[in-house]
Amino acid sequence: MADVPPGLVWERAAPPDDPGPGPWIEIAYGEGYAEGDPEAPVYLRETTAPETVVTTNRRKWEAFVLGVQAGEFDHFVEGA
């Protein structure tokens, strides 16, 4: 597991009107993200296991988000 800097601001990927505990994915952006650094770290965790953090970078995260928006991963949830 990567070193997670203290003081990250975690953003919960949940419907705004859902107060429930989830489980939800939470995202935090590391140093350099706001400045547009493509290698800036992006941290992901699940609300039910916040001690387990996955790290990627801005370039890969944005490619993933574009893929989700384009429906590239819809086959994973067919019939769900």
UniProtKB/TrEMBL annotation:
Source domain of life: Bacteria
Annotated spans, Disordered: 1-22
Protein name, UniProt field: DUF397 domain-containing protein
Provenance organism: Streptomyces griseoaurantiacus
